[in-house]
Specification:
single chain; alpha/beta; Rossmann fold; 2 domains; 9-stranded mixed sheet; 15 strands; binds NADPH dihydro-nicotinamide-adenine-dinucleotide phosphate
């Protein structure tokens, strides 16, 4: 069998080529530009704008289209990013994107409770979907999204930008290589003070929940990639200091604990009522890793028992979109998955946490 290495060596290509994604290295060696993922953004809000700006520096992904309910934003984005009129859609006519050969993938950056409906519509239109976190508002919806993308033969990726961040990846590699010994404890602190009480994040019909859906998911997901295993049970406790702002179904603060097959445990806090809460701590029998900030837009500050990590900060969404292009176009396998199944694991844990809050019981997590 001709492996990638054999093929490249036969072709007389360099070590540089060996470090690039397969189609990238071949294309580059043959003097061709690597293929670029042509992306439309759905939902031109604050995070959509951040992703669009970050994509200006991408080499493998390009913003070529928009889907929005606000005509004035479409106009502004068309001018700012040179988007042709034929690549602009509203939520009402988005099914027509099926006939657009100039768009490969759509990045869904709308409120959480709309992710399912939007993802399924785009899958049916034959487009690969990148969907923001949380992938949905519960595991059942996540399963429907995965099934729809599978049936349509398109890929579904979740916007887990930290899975491509250099300090995070360094720690994950060290953990997998046993540098911290047996890792038996993770602490995740995720929170910020939320402003405007009228925003969709505090409206259950659009958010699916409060701080947990928005920021708590970082501690859930972080516990899994830092420990390198998936939890089998959770316990959780909710507290509320402002029942007017944080109505029924909108969690203000939840502390939760997770248990893992190895015997490791995680202790986490998710809140909308405290700032300066963005910290991961991983403790093992031979060492530790600490990140603070751990999931903000960066620079991420990280250290281990051996000293600080000094990776250069690159805008997270730029790296994320280039890497996602390589996943979709070249079949590249990321160290930490970003597929729908990865998003679904977090949704199962969110469901279990809400159940644990309600019942006061330890809740098992389905495999
Ligand atoms: P915004 O409110 O800033 O933007 C959401 C956009 O969605 C709106 O501007 C609007 O765009 C569109 N939209 C469609 N229907 C509705 C509706 N009924 N109500 C409100 N907006 C609607 O939110 P964010 O950009 O902050 O968040 C969007 C998603 O991105 C969320 O799922 C969030 O969790 C995720 N996110 C992820 C981050 C990360 O670091 N990975 C960081 C921040 C957010 P239009 O007018 O164009 O239709």
């Amino acid at each position: 069998m001709t492996t990638r290495r054999h093929f490249l060596q036969k072709a007389g290509l360099t070590t540089l080529a060996l470090s690039l994604p397969f189609s990238d290295s071949i294309a580059q060696a043959m003097g061709q530009e690597p293929k670029v993922l042509r992306v439309a953004i759905m939902g031109l809000g604050s995070y959509g704008a951040r992703v669009a700006d970050a994509m200006k520096d991408c080499s493998r992904a390009k913003l070529v289209g928009v889907i929005s309910g606000t005509p004035s934003k479409i106009e502004q984005w068309q001018q700012k990013y040179s988007i042709p009129a034929q690549n602009c859609y509203s939520y009402d006519n988005v099914a027509e994107i099926k006939n657009n050969k100039d768009i490969d993938a759509v990045y869904v950056i709308t409120p959480n409770a709309l992710h399912k409906e939007h993802t399924i519509a785009l899958a049916k239109a034959g487009k690969h979907v990148i969907c923001e976190k949380p992938m949905a508002v519960n595991a059942r919806e996540g399963q429907e999204m995965i099934a729809a993308c599978k049936a349509a033969g398109v890929q579904l990726l979740i916007g887990y930008r930290m899975h491509f961040e250099a300090n995070t990846l360094d720690i994950v590699k060290k953990q997998r290589a046993g540098e911290f010994g047996k890792t038996l404890f993770f602490q995740g602190l995720s929170g910020f003070i939320i402003g405007d009480p009228s925003q969709w994040r505090l409206n259950k019909a659009l958010s699916g929940g409060g701080a947990m859906m928005d920021i708590g998911v970082y501690s859930i997901n972080g516990a899994r990639y830092m420990l390198g295993e998936d939890p089998i049970w959770v316990t959780a406790q909710e507290t509320k200091t402002d029942p007017i702002k944080f109505k029924e179904g909108i969690d203000e603060t939840i502390t939760f604990q997770m248990g893992f097959p190895s015997g490791a445990t995680a202790s986490c806090l998710s809140t909308y009522s405290l700032n300066y809460l963005d910290k991961f701590f991983l403790s093992g029998t031979k060492g530790f890793a600490e990140m603070q900030p751990s999931t903000g837009y960066g620079p991420i500050k990280a250290k281990t028992h051996s000293g600080p990590l000094e990776h250069t900060h690159v805008t997270h969404q730029t790296t994320q979109m280039d890497e996602m292009a390589a996943i979709i176009l070249d079949g590249k396998q990321p160290l930490i998955p970003v597929d729908g199944e990865e998003g679904l694991k977090d949704m199962h844990i969110v469901d279990a946490i809400f159940k644990a809050v309600k019942t006061g019981q330890k809740v098992s997590i389905p495999k």
